[in-house]
Amino acid sequence: MARNSNLPLLLVPFLFSPALVRSSSPLPLVLNTWPFKNATEAGAGGGWVRVAALTTMDVGAVGALRRIKNAIGVARKVLEYTTHTLLAGELATKFAESMGFASEDLSTNTSRALHSDWRAQNCQPNYWRNVIPDASKYCGPYKPKPHSILKQDDPTYKETGDNYGHDTIGMIVIHKTGHTAAGTSTNGIKFKIPGRIGDSPIPGSGAYADDTAGAAAATGDGDILMRFLPSYQAVEYMRRGVDPTIACQKVISRIQKYFPNFFGAVICANMTGSYGAACNKLPTFTQFSFMVYNSLKNQPTEEKVDCI
């Protein structure tokens, strides 16, 4: 997703703190969901990428983009050269090529080996359900079960994480001129069903920014997160004067009511430079690490928040 502004789309990493992160920091401020200083370089290894960037209600996004490494750049072209919001799939790749982006094989030896091992293990885990043959035991191709025996069980596999284990990079910027920017990029979940698009390119889900309130970005199980538009909701809380940390926590709590075991985290910042984060506590995910940079810091700094 990309939002129009005179600000460059910064991809800089940043943060540390206890369960409640509350900080008033001079602008400019940059927050990043990846706790690595070299997070400007998102790895390509799954073959598909999806992205979003945002700043003034002008939005550009791409999803299920194949063979193009610089997805955030393509999202920017959607914003700058079209009146559309989201392009997806093979035709999004053709659009990228028409904008001068090089098409290349994004698979790596690691990703090919991972896929080969997955096939050898009867395609376990996967995201199919209510199909024949049994997706918990066999690979496809699959056909739907008769409607009379459908079950609304949980999928065979859920996206989970540890304190550092998430793929999506989300970034928000609050500039000293009063402008905001937000963007996300991801390879998506492993073993996904081809054609799946998660939360990253959906405005208000992966990221959201509004110069009158602040900005937010989310990471985690996109299939759950996108049902709640967590970034939009967090910005709306801050618009009402809610502290960024509390805004993030309220978003997480809202999702917990429906999916108590979901994997996810949110970063938030308001227009004064105050920021915060929150995450849903799981056995393997007890803290969320992210990065912060502002005019008081000489370099991106890691901060942590205890999950709730």
TrEMBL record:
Q: Which Gene3D superfamilies does the record cross-reference, listed alphabetically?
A: (Glycosyl)asparaginase
Which reaction(s) does the protein catalyse, per the Swiss-Prot or TrEMBL entry?
N(4)-(beta-N-acetyl-D-glucosaminyl)-L-asparagine + H2O = N-acetyl-beta-D-glucosaminylamine + L-aspartate + H(+)
Q: Site: Cleavage. Where?
A: D167, T168
Q: Provide the leader sequence positions.
A: 1-23
Q: What does this protein do?
A: Cleaves the GlcNAc-Asn bond which joins oligosaccharides to the peptide of asparagine-linked glycoproteins.
Which Gene Ontology BP terms does the record give?
A: proteolysis
Q: Which InterPro entries match?
A: Ntn_hydrolases_N, Peptidase_T2
What Enzyme Commission number(s) does the record list for this chain?
A: 3.5.1.26
* UniProt key word Protease: yes
Similarity-based family: Belongs to the Ntn-hydrolase family.
| UniProt-annotated catalytic positions | T168 (nucleophile)
Q: Where is it found, in Gene Ontology cellular component terms?
A: lysosome
The record's keywords, sorted A to Z, are: Autocatalytic cleavage, Hydrolase, Protease, Signal
Q: What species is this protein from?
A: Orycteropus afer afer
Q: Where does substrate bind?
A: R196, I197, G198, D199, T219, G220, D221, G222
> Which Gene Ontology molecular-function terms are recorded?
N4-(beta-N-acetylglucosaminyl)-L-asparaginase activity; peptidase activity
The protein's name in its UniProt record: N(4)-(Beta-N-acetylglucosaminyl)-L-asparaginase
